[in-house]
């Protein structure tokens, strides 16, 4: 059975005190839930190493929230893929809608970052999804096609092997209004079919997550869907109890 992947994206949140409380709780409670789940924590860059030291022996993986396109040099304030790899990062989120919106990242830049992550043998978590306006104007499929096409253009038919796609409709992020699981299922199927047209890879190998206002109460309705391979959790992942509850729900579904 395919493991579900549960990812915590802490965005620009938390501090040393809260991280310490979170990790203590995680250490005490996580082990029984890891059989059917892969768990990834993506904290702010400054806390990556501190967290790696505590989660490495728990079989939980470290994720970064972004990476620069340069490997080294005079690029003040940036973090390179070599540095992320050096401190134990395995997964890197790329193209999150908050980076697209607040840092003007476009599909081309995101494709470059995606390639850099893959060429460094780390696993990209590519975020895609439509805005509220785009959904209202029936542009969801067109937007998703554009976001995927550029990746195929750059990296060919094997682009999505050893990668994760996170479908995160922008209107569902941080709004408390998660998408309808049936709607997400239909979009995931659309993504799989679209990728299938370009690539001869086994569809089973394509991993597609959902993200957007996930919490311990609604996680089950998403994780029950076979086309939803896991969740990218924002604010609910800051509270260890709630995050553990989401992992537990996933475990229970897969244990059945
Ligand atoms: P929320 O779960 O806070 O809506 O955030 C989702 C998200 O953007 C995860 O990357």
TrEMBL record:
Task: Spell out the subunit comment.
Answer: Homodimer.
Organism, scientific name = Buchnera aphidicola (Aphis glycines)
By its UniProt entry, which InterPro entries does this protein fall under? Aldolase_TIM, TIM_sf, TrioseP_Isoase_bac/euk, Triosephosphate_isomerase, Triosephosphate_isomerase_AS
Q: Which GO terms describe its cellular component?
A: cytosol
Which family, according to UniProt?
A: Belongs to the triosephosphate isomerase family.
User: Where does this one sit in the cell?
Assistant: Cytoplasm
Q: Per its UniProt record, what HAMAP family does this chain match?
A: TIM_B (MF_00147_B)
Q: Name one GO molecular function term.
A: triose-phosphate isomerase activity
Provide the organism lineage as a comma list. Answer: Bacteria, Pseudomonadati, Pseudomonadota, Gammaproteobacteria, Enterobacterales
**Which pathway does it take part in?**
Carbohydrate metabolism; erythritol degradation; Carbohydrate degradation; glycolysis; D-glyceraldehyde 3-phosphate from glycerone phosphate: step 1/1; Carbohydrate biosynthesis; gluconeogenesis
Major place of residence? cytoplasm
> EC annotation?
5.3.1.1
Q: Which reaction does it catalyse?
A: D-glyceraldehyde 3-phosphate = dihydroxyacetone phosphate
Q: What is the role of the protein in this entry?
A: Involved in the gluconeogenesis. Catalyzes stereospecifically the conversion of dihydroxyacetone phosphate (DHAP) to D-glyceraldehyde-3-phosphate (G3P).
Q: What are the catalytic residues? A: 96, 168
Any Pfam family matching the protein: TIM
GO BP term, example = glycerol catabolic process
Question: What is this protein's name?
Answer: Triosephosphate isomerase
